[in-house]
Amino acid sequence: KLDFHPSGRHFLQIPGPSPVPDRILRAMSLPTIDHRGPEFGALGLELLAKVKKVFKTEHPVIIYPASGTGAWEAALANTMSPGDQVLMFETGHFATLWQKMALRLSLVPEFIGLPGYEGWRQGVQADMIQERLNNDPEHAIKAVCVVHNETSTGVTSDIAAVRRAIDATGHPALLIVDTISGLASADYRHDEWGVDVTVSGSQKGLMLPPGISFNALSPKAIEVSQHAKLPRSFWAWDEILEANQRGYWPYTPSTNLLYGLNEALDMLLDEGIDHVLARHQRWAAGVRTAVEAWGLEVQCQDPALYSPVLTGVVMPEGVDADEIRKIIYERFDLSLGMGLGKAKGKMFRIGHLGDCNDLTLIATLGGCEAGMKLAGVNLQGSGVTAALDYFANNPLSTGTSE
Ligand code: PLP
Protein backbone atom coordinates (compact mmCIF):
# COMPACT_ATOMS: atom_id res chain seq x y z
CA LYS A 1 0.00 0.00 0.00
CA LEU A 2 1.28 3.46 -0.89
CA ASP A 3 1.67 6.15 1.79
CA PHE A 4 -0.24 8.59 -0.38
CA HIS A 5 -2.92 8.56 -3.03
CA PRO A 6 -0.88 7.97 -6.20
CA SER A 7 -1.15 10.61 -8.88
CA GLY A 8 0.70 11.09 -12.12
CA ARG A 9 2.21 8.06 -13.82
CA HIS A 10 3.59 5.11 -11.91
CA PHE A 11 7.32 4.67 -12.57
CA LEU A 12 7.62 1.17 -14.01
CA GLN A 13 11.40 0.81 -14.04
CA ILE A 14 11.65 -2.95 -13.72
CA PRO A 15 13.59 -4.66 -16.54
CA GLY A 16 10.38 -5.63 -18.25
CA PRO A 17 7.52 -5.35 -18.68
CA SER A 18 8.58 -1.87 -19.71
CA PRO A 19 6.28 1.15 -20.09
CA VAL A 20 4.07 0.96 -23.18
CA PRO A 21 4.06 4.21 -25.23
CA ASP A 22 0.66 5.86 -25.78
CA ARG A 23 1.06 5.41 -29.52
CA ILE A 24 1.19 1.63 -29.07
CA LEU A 25 -1.69 1.61 -26.58
CA ARG A 26 -3.80 3.50 -29.10
CA ALA A 27 -2.90 1.10 -31.91
CA MET A 28 -3.92 -1.84 -29.72
CA SER A 29 -7.27 -0.25 -28.88
CA LEU A 30 -8.57 -0.63 -32.45
CA PRO A 31 -11.36 -3.16 -33.00
CA THR A 32 -10.31 -6.79 -33.30
CA ILE A 33 -10.76 -8.02 -36.87
CA ASP A 34 -11.30 -11.38 -38.56
CA HIS A 35 -7.96 -13.17 -38.33
CA ARG A 36 -8.79 -15.12 -41.51
CA GLY A 37 -9.88 -12.08 -43.53
CA PRO A 38 -7.90 -10.16 -46.18
CA GLU A 39 -7.16 -7.15 -43.98
CA PHE A 40 -5.47 -9.38 -41.41
CA GLY A 41 -3.46 -11.26 -44.05
CA ALA A 42 -2.02 -7.97 -45.29
CA LEU A 43 -1.10 -6.94 -41.73
CA GLY A 44 0.48 -10.34 -41.08
CA LEU A 45 2.67 -10.17 -44.17
CA GLU A 46 3.72 -6.61 -43.34
CA LEU A 47 4.75 -7.30 -39.78
CA LEU A 48 6.42 -10.65 -40.49
CA ALA A 49 8.65 -8.80 -42.98
CA LYS A 50 9.35 -5.87 -40.65
CA VAL A 51 10.08 -7.93 -37.54
CA LYS A 52 13.06 -9.58 -39.29
CA LYS A 53 14.84 -6.24 -39.32
CA VAL A 54 14.84 -6.03 -35.53
CA PHE A 55 16.44 -9.48 -35.26
CA LYS A 56 18.77 -8.57 -38.15
CA THR A 57 17.82 -11.68 -40.07
CA GLU A 58 16.72 -12.58 -43.58
CA HIS A 59 15.15 -15.82 -42.33
CA PRO A 60 11.69 -16.49 -40.86
CA VAL A 61 10.63 -15.23 -37.44
CA ILE A 62 7.85 -17.17 -35.70
CA ILE A 63 5.43 -15.23 -33.48
CA TYR A 64 3.61 -17.05 -30.65
CA PRO A 65 0.66 -15.89 -28.57
CA ALA A 66 2.64 -16.67 -25.40
CA SER A 67 5.08 -15.14 -22.94
CA GLY A 68 8.83 -15.63 -23.41
CA THR A 69 8.74 -18.94 -21.56
CA GLY A 70 6.59 -20.38 -24.34
CA ALA A 71 9.16 -19.35 -26.95
CA TRP A 72 11.91 -20.98 -24.83
CA GLU A 73 9.95 -24.23 -24.93
CA ALA A 74 9.26 -23.84 -28.64
CA ALA A 75 12.97 -23.46 -29.43
CA LEU A 76 13.78 -26.74 -27.67
CA ALA A 77 10.66 -28.68 -28.68
CA ASN A 78 11.21 -27.98 -32.38
CA THR A 79 14.89 -28.89 -32.52
CA MET A 80 15.57 -31.58 -29.92
CA SER A 81 14.66 -35.23 -29.35
CA PRO A 82 14.04 -36.95 -25.99
CA GLY A 83 17.32 -37.64 -24.17
CA ASP A 84 19.35 -35.17 -26.23
CA GLN A 85 22.22 -33.48 -24.41
CA VAL A 86 22.25 -29.70 -24.34
CA LEU A 87 25.05 -27.50 -23.04
CA MET A 88 23.73 -24.52 -21.06
CA PHE A 89 25.66 -21.74 -19.33
CA GLU A 90 24.74 -20.42 -15.88
CA THR A 91 24.70 -16.64 -16.26
CA GLY A 92 21.93 -16.09 -13.71
CA HIS A 93 18.34 -16.82 -12.74
CA PHE A 94 16.89 -17.00 -16.25
CA ALA A 95 19.58 -19.35 -17.53
CA THR A 96 18.77 -21.51 -14.48
CA LEU A 97 15.05 -21.56 -15.26
CA TRP A 98 15.73 -22.50 -18.88
CA GLN A 99 17.90 -25.37 -17.72
CA LYS A 100 15.06 -26.60 -15.45
CA MET A 101 12.74 -26.45 -18.44
CA ALA A 102 15.17 -28.58 -20.48
CA LEU A 103 15.04 -31.23 -17.73
CA ARG A 104 11.24 -31.20 -17.70
CA LEU A 105 11.24 -31.66 -21.47
CA SER A 106 13.25 -34.89 -21.04
CA LEU A 107 16.49 -33.38 -22.33
CA VAL A 108 19.82 -33.89 -20.55
CA PRO A 109 21.16 -30.40 -19.82
CA GLU A 110 24.74 -29.95 -18.73
CA PHE A 111 24.90 -26.71 -16.79
CA ILE A 112 28.35 -25.16 -16.74
CA GLY A 113 29.38 -21.81 -15.32
CA LEU A 114 31.55 -19.88 -12.92
CA PRO A 115 30.92 -20.77 -9.27
CA GLY A 116 28.55 -19.13 -6.79
CA TYR A 117 27.00 -15.69 -6.67
CA GLU A 118 30.24 -14.17 -8.03
CA GLY A 119 29.73 -16.27 -11.17
CA TRP A 120 26.53 -14.30 -11.72
CA ARG A 121 28.60 -11.14 -12.11
CA GLN A 122 30.29 -12.36 -15.32
CA GLY A 123 29.04 -13.39 -18.75
CA VAL A 124 29.14 -16.61 -20.76
CA GLN A 125 32.72 -17.91 -20.88
CA ALA A 126 33.16 -18.93 -24.52
CA ASP A 127 36.41 -20.77 -23.74
CA MET A 128 34.57 -23.11 -21.35
CA ILE A 129 32.08 -23.92 -24.09
CA GLN A 130 34.90 -24.53 -26.54
CA GLU A 131 36.68 -26.85 -24.12
CA ARG A 132 33.51 -28.85 -23.44
CA LEU A 133 32.71 -29.26 -27.14
CA ASN A 134 36.28 -30.32 -27.83
CA ASN A 135 35.67 -33.16 -25.38
CA ASP A 136 32.61 -34.34 -27.24
CA PRO A 137 34.05 -36.16 -30.26
CA GLU A 138 30.85 -38.20 -30.67
CA HIS A 139 28.78 -35.00 -30.99
CA ALA A 140 26.38 -36.09 -28.27
CA ILE A 141 25.69 -32.43 -27.44
CA LYS A 142 22.94 -31.23 -29.76
CA ALA A 143 22.67 -27.58 -28.74
CA VAL A 144 24.47 -24.81 -26.90
CA CYS A 145 21.92 -22.61 -25.11
CA VAL A 146 22.91 -19.21 -23.72
CA VAL A 147 21.15 -16.11 -22.47
CA HIS A 148 22.27 -12.96 -24.28
CA ASN A 149 21.03 -10.33 -21.81
CA GLU A 150 20.71 -11.95 -18.38
CA THR A 151 17.86 -9.94 -16.89
CA SER A 152 18.59 -11.09 -13.35
CA THR A 153 22.08 -9.57 -13.34
CA GLY A 154 22.48 -6.92 -16.06
CA VAL A 155 25.28 -8.80 -17.82
CA THR A 156 25.11 -8.99 -21.65
CA SER A 157 27.15 -11.88 -23.03
CA ASP A 158 29.21 -11.87 -26.21
CA ILE A 159 27.25 -14.13 -28.57
CA ALA A 160 29.68 -13.69 -31.48
CA ALA A 161 32.41 -15.11 -29.22
CA VAL A 162 30.24 -18.15 -28.44
CA ARG A 163 29.72 -18.70 -32.18
CA ARG A 164 33.47 -18.47 -32.79
CA ALA A 165 34.10 -20.97 -29.98
CA ILE A 166 31.66 -23.47 -31.49
CA ASP A 167 33.13 -22.99 -34.97
CA ALA A 168 36.67 -23.45 -33.66
CA THR A 169 35.73 -26.97 -32.59
CA GLY A 170 33.90 -27.86 -35.83
CA HIS A 171 31.07 -29.14 -33.61
CA PRO A 172 27.62 -29.28 -35.28
CA ALA A 173 25.60 -28.31 -32.16
CA LEU A 174 22.91 -25.70 -32.71
CA LEU A 175 23.36 -22.29 -31.08
CA ILE A 176 20.14 -21.28 -29.31
CA VAL A 177 20.07 -17.82 -27.73
CA ASP A 178 17.60 -16.13 -25.37
CA THR A 179 17.45 -12.39 -26.02
CA ILE A 180 14.06 -11.98 -24.39
CA SER A 181 15.19 -8.81 -22.63
CA GLY A 182 17.92 -7.78 -25.06
CA LEU A 183 16.05 -7.37 -28.34
CA ALA A 184 15.63 -3.76 -29.48
CA SER A 185 17.56 -2.35 -26.52
CA ALA A 186 20.87 -4.25 -26.84
CA ASP A 187 22.82 -4.94 -30.03
CA TYR A 188 21.66 -8.24 -31.52
CA ARG A 189 22.48 -9.83 -34.90
CA HIS A 190 20.82 -13.19 -35.56
CA ASP A 191 22.36 -13.84 -38.99
CA GLU A 192 25.79 -12.25 -38.53
CA TRP A 193 26.36 -14.10 -35.25
CA GLY A 194 25.26 -17.40 -36.76
CA VAL A 195 22.49 -18.04 -34.25
CA ASP A 196 20.22 -20.97 -35.08
CA VAL A 197 17.25 -20.08 -32.89
CA THR A 198 16.79 -16.71 -31.19
CA VAL A 199 14.13 -16.53 -28.49
CA SER A 200 12.57 -13.19 -27.61
CA GLY A 201 9.51 -11.57 -26.05
CA SER A 202 7.30 -8.54 -26.43
CA GLN A 203 7.35 -6.84 -23.04
CA LYS A 204 10.89 -5.48 -22.96
CA GLY A 205 12.67 -3.54 -25.71
CA LEU A 206 9.70 -3.88 -28.06
CA MET A 207 7.67 -1.73 -25.61
CA LEU A 208 4.60 -3.98 -25.82
CA PRO A 209 2.59 -5.60 -23.05
CA PRO A 210 3.50 -9.23 -22.26
CA GLY A 211 1.81 -11.86 -24.41
CA ILE A 212 3.67 -12.47 -27.64
CA SER A 213 7.06 -14.06 -28.12
CA PHE A 214 9.38 -15.06 -30.92
CA ASN A 215 11.64 -17.71 -32.43
CA ALA A 216 13.95 -16.38 -35.15
CA LEU A 217 15.24 -19.32 -37.18
CA SER A 218 18.23 -20.29 -39.29
CA PRO A 219 17.95 -22.61 -42.31
CA LYS A 220 19.89 -25.21 -40.27
CA ALA A 221 17.38 -24.98 -37.40
CA ILE A 222 14.50 -25.51 -39.84
CA GLU A 223 16.27 -28.52 -41.32
CA VAL A 224 17.01 -30.02 -37.88
CA SER A 225 13.37 -29.50 -36.84
CA GLN A 226 12.25 -31.83 -39.61
CA HIS A 227 13.91 -34.78 -37.82
CA ALA A 228 13.63 -33.69 -34.16
CA LYS A 229 11.33 -35.92 -32.14
CA LEU A 230 10.18 -34.03 -29.04
CA PRO A 231 6.37 -33.88 -29.12
CA ARG A 232 5.05 -30.50 -30.23
CA SER A 233 1.80 -29.24 -31.62
CA PHE A 234 0.98 -25.68 -30.50
CA TRP A 235 4.67 -24.80 -30.87
CA ALA A 236 5.32 -26.62 -34.16
CA TRP A 237 7.12 -24.38 -36.62
CA ASP A 238 6.06 -26.22 -39.78
CA GLU A 239 2.36 -25.33 -39.73
CA ILE A 240 3.08 -21.77 -38.65
CA LEU A 241 5.66 -21.26 -41.40
CA GLU A 242 3.17 -22.60 -43.91
CA ALA A 243 0.34 -20.29 -42.82
CA ASN A 244 2.72 -17.32 -42.43
CA GLN A 245 3.42 -17.43 -46.16
CA ARG A 246 -0.01 -15.84 -46.63
CA GLY A 247 0.17 -13.66 -43.49
CA TYR A 248 -1.94 -15.97 -41.31
CA TRP A 249 -1.48 -18.31 -38.34
CA PRO A 250 -2.81 -21.86 -37.93
CA TYR A 251 -4.72 -20.76 -34.81
CA THR A 252 -6.07 -17.47 -33.48
CA PRO A 253 -3.19 -15.01 -33.11
CA SER A 254 -3.11 -12.17 -30.55
CA THR A 255 -4.67 -9.74 -32.99
CA ASN A 256 -4.48 -6.59 -30.87
CA LEU A 257 -0.95 -7.30 -29.64
CA LEU A 258 0.00 -7.67 -33.30
CA TYR A 259 -1.45 -4.19 -33.99
CA GLY A 260 0.84 -3.02 -31.20
CA LEU A 261 3.80 -4.90 -32.64
CA ASN A 262 3.25 -3.30 -36.03
CA GLU A 263 3.24 0.14 -34.41
CA ALA A 264 6.32 -0.65 -32.31
CA LEU A 265 8.18 -1.83 -35.41
CA ASP A 266 7.29 1.40 -37.20
CA MET A 267 8.60 3.41 -34.26
CA LEU A 268 11.85 1.43 -34.05
CA LEU A 269 12.49 1.28 -37.79
CA ASP A 270 11.62 4.94 -38.41
CA GLU A 271 14.14 5.96 -35.77
CA GLY A 272 16.65 3.34 -36.94
CA ILE A 273 17.57 0.35 -34.77
CA ASP A 274 21.15 1.49 -34.33
CA HIS A 275 19.99 4.85 -33.03
CA VAL A 276 17.67 3.10 -30.58
CA LEU A 277 20.61 1.00 -29.36
CA ALA A 278 22.81 4.07 -28.96
CA ARG A 279 20.12 5.69 -26.79
CA HIS A 280 20.12 2.69 -24.49
CA GLN A 281 23.93 2.58 -24.22
CA ARG A 282 23.91 6.21 -23.20
CA TRP A 283 21.18 5.76 -20.58
CA ALA A 284 23.00 2.77 -19.13
CA ALA A 285 26.22 4.80 -18.91
CA GLY A 286 24.34 7.61 -17.12
CA VAL A 287 22.84 5.17 -14.61
CA ARG A 288 26.27 3.62 -13.95
CA THR A 289 27.65 7.12 -13.36
CA ALA A 290 25.03 7.50 -10.63
CA VAL A 291 25.91 4.15 -9.05
CA GLU A 292 29.56 5.14 -8.99
CA ALA A 293 28.77 8.52 -7.41
CA TRP A 294 26.79 6.73 -4.69
CA GLY A 295 29.92 4.71 -4.00
CA LEU A 296 28.12 1.43 -4.79
CA GLU A 297 28.92 -1.44 -7.11
CA VAL A 298 27.25 -2.48 -10.34
CA GLN A 299 26.40 -6.20 -10.36
CA CYS A 300 28.18 -6.75 -13.70
CA GLN A 301 31.93 -6.92 -13.13
CA ASP A 302 33.05 -6.98 -16.75
CA PRO A 303 32.84 -3.46 -18.27
CA ALA A 304 32.72 -4.97 -21.77
CA LEU A 305 29.46 -6.70 -20.79
CA TYR A 306 27.54 -3.91 -19.03
CA SER A 307 23.91 -4.26 -20.04
CA PRO A 308 22.26 -1.40 -21.93
CA VAL A 309 18.91 -2.82 -20.74
CA LEU A 310 19.23 -2.74 -16.96
CA THR A 311 21.72 -2.08 -14.20
CA GLY A 312 22.00 -4.23 -11.08
CA VAL A 313 22.91 -2.12 -8.04
CA VAL A 314 24.62 -4.13 -5.29
CA MET A 315 23.80 -3.10 -1.73
CA PRO A 316 26.49 -2.84 0.95
CA GLU A 317 26.91 -5.89 3.25
CA GLY A 318 24.04 -6.13 5.71
CA VAL A 319 21.56 -4.01 3.72
CA ASP A 320 18.49 -5.87 2.45
CA ALA A 321 17.86 -4.70 -1.11
CA ASP A 322 14.22 -5.81 -0.92
CA GLU A 323 13.66 -3.52 2.08
CA ILE A 324 15.00 -0.60 0.02
CA ARG A 325 12.76 -1.49 -2.92
CA LYS A 326 9.77 -1.62 -0.57
CA ILE A 327 10.49 1.88 0.76
CA ILE A 328 10.97 3.23 -2.76
CA TYR A 329 7.71 1.70 -3.92
CA GLU A 330 5.69 2.84 -0.95
CA ARG A 331 7.08 6.36 -0.78
CA PHE A 332 7.64 7.20 -4.43
CA ASP A 333 5.38 4.90 -6.46
CA LEU A 334 8.43 3.53 -8.30
CA SER A 335 8.86 -0.17 -9.14
CA LEU A 336 12.38 -1.60 -9.37
CA GLY A 337 13.45 -5.16 -10.16
CA MET A 338 14.22 -7.46 -7.24
CA GLY A 339 17.29 -9.63 -6.79
CA LEU A 340 16.43 -13.13 -8.05
CA GLY A 341 17.85 -16.51 -7.05
CA LYS A 342 21.43 -16.21 -5.80
CA ALA A 343 21.14 -12.40 -5.94
CA LYS A 344 18.03 -12.25 -3.72
CA GLY A 345 18.26 -9.39 -1.22
CA LYS A 346 21.75 -8.47 -2.42
CA MET A 347 20.82 -6.03 -5.18
CA PHE A 348 18.01 -4.24 -6.97
CA ARG A 349 17.70 -3.73 -10.71
CA ILE A 350 16.98 -0.49 -12.55
CA GLY A 351 15.41 -1.00 -15.97
CA HIS A 352 16.38 1.50 -18.66
CA LEU A 353 14.89 -0.37 -21.60
CA GLY A 354 12.20 0.50 -24.09
CA ASP A 355 10.39 3.81 -23.82
CA CYS A 356 12.48 6.00 -21.46
CA ASN A 357 14.04 9.42 -21.61
CA ASP A 358 16.72 11.24 -19.65
CA LEU A 359 14.24 12.66 -17.17
CA THR A 360 12.37 9.42 -16.45
CA LEU A 361 15.77 8.02 -15.52
CA ILE A 362 16.71 11.05 -13.43
CA ALA A 363 13.42 10.68 -11.55
CA THR A 364 14.08 6.95 -11.13
CA LEU A 365 17.55 7.62 -9.77
CA GLY A 366 16.00 10.28 -7.51
CA GLY A 367 13.63 7.68 -6.06
CA CYS A 368 16.52 5.24 -5.54
CA GLU A 369 18.70 7.87 -3.89
CA ALA A 370 15.96 9.11 -1.56
CA GLY A 371 14.91 5.56 -0.67
CA MET A 372 18.45 4.47 0.14
CA LYS A 373 18.95 7.57 2.30
CA LEU A 374 15.69 6.89 4.16
CA ALA A 375 16.91 3.34 4.81
CA GLY A 376 20.18 4.69 6.23
CA VAL A 377 22.45 3.48 3.41
CA ASN A 378 25.69 5.39 3.54
CA LEU A 379 26.04 7.07 0.11
CA GLN A 380 29.26 8.77 -0.93
CA GLY A 381 27.62 11.41 -3.08
CA SER A 382 24.62 12.25 -5.24
CA GLY A 383 24.05 9.84 -8.09
CA VAL A 384 21.23 12.03 -9.38
CA THR A 385 23.53 15.04 -9.81
CA ALA A 386 26.21 12.88 -11.42
CA ALA A 387 23.73 11.39 -13.89
CA LEU A 388 22.23 14.80 -14.69
CA ASP A 389 25.70 16.09 -15.49
CA TYR A 390 26.40 12.99 -17.55
CA PHE A 391 23.23 13.41 -19.62
CA ALA A 392 23.76 17.17 -20.02
CA ASN A 393 27.36 16.76 -21.14
CA ASN A 394 26.87 13.72 -23.37
CA PRO A 395 24.10 14.41 -25.88
CA LEU A 396 23.39 11.63 -28.32
CA SER A 397 25.52 12.66 -31.25
CA THR A 398 23.59 10.82 -33.93
CA GLY A 399 20.17 12.26 -33.84
CA THR A 400 17.01 13.90 -32.87
CA SER A 401 15.26 11.74 -30.31
CA GLU A 402 16.45 13.41 -27.14
N1 PLP B 1 14.46 -15.14 -20.22
C1 PLP B 1 14.78 -13.90 -19.83
C2 PLP B 1 16.17 -13.41 -20.06
C3 PLP B 1 13.83 -13.09 -19.21
O1 PLP B 1 14.15 -11.85 -18.83
C4 PLP B 1 12.52 -13.60 -19.00
C5 PLP B 1 11.51 -12.78 -18.32
O2 PLP B 1 11.79 -11.77 -17.71
C6 PLP B 1 12.23 -14.89 -19.42
C7 PLP B 1 13.23 -15.62 -20.04
C8 PLP B 1 10.88 -15.48 -19.23
O3 PLP B 1 9.97 -14.80 -20.05
P1 PLP B 1 8.44 -14.64 -19.66
O4 PLP B 1 8.39 -14.17 -18.24
O5 PLP B 1 7.92 -13.62 -20.65
O6 PLP B 1 7.79 -15.96 -19.83
TrEMBL record:
Location of N6-(pyridoxal phosphate)lysine modifications: 204
GO biological-process terms attached to the record: glycine biosynthetic process, by transamination of glyoxylate
The positions annotated for binding substrate are: 349
Q: Name one Pfam family in it.
A: Aminotran_5
Q: Gene3D superfamilies, from UniProt?
A: Aspartate Aminotransferase, domain 1, Type I PLP-dependent aspartate aminotransferase-like (Major domain)
Q: Output the superkingdom of the source species.
A: Bacteria
Tell me the cofactors it needs.
Answer: pyridoxal 5'-phosphate
Q: Which family does it belong to?
A: Belongs to the class-V pyridoxal-phosphate-dependent aminotransferase family.
Name of the protein in its database record: Aminotransferase class V-fold PLP-dependent enzyme
Q: Which organism is it from?
A: Vreelandella populi
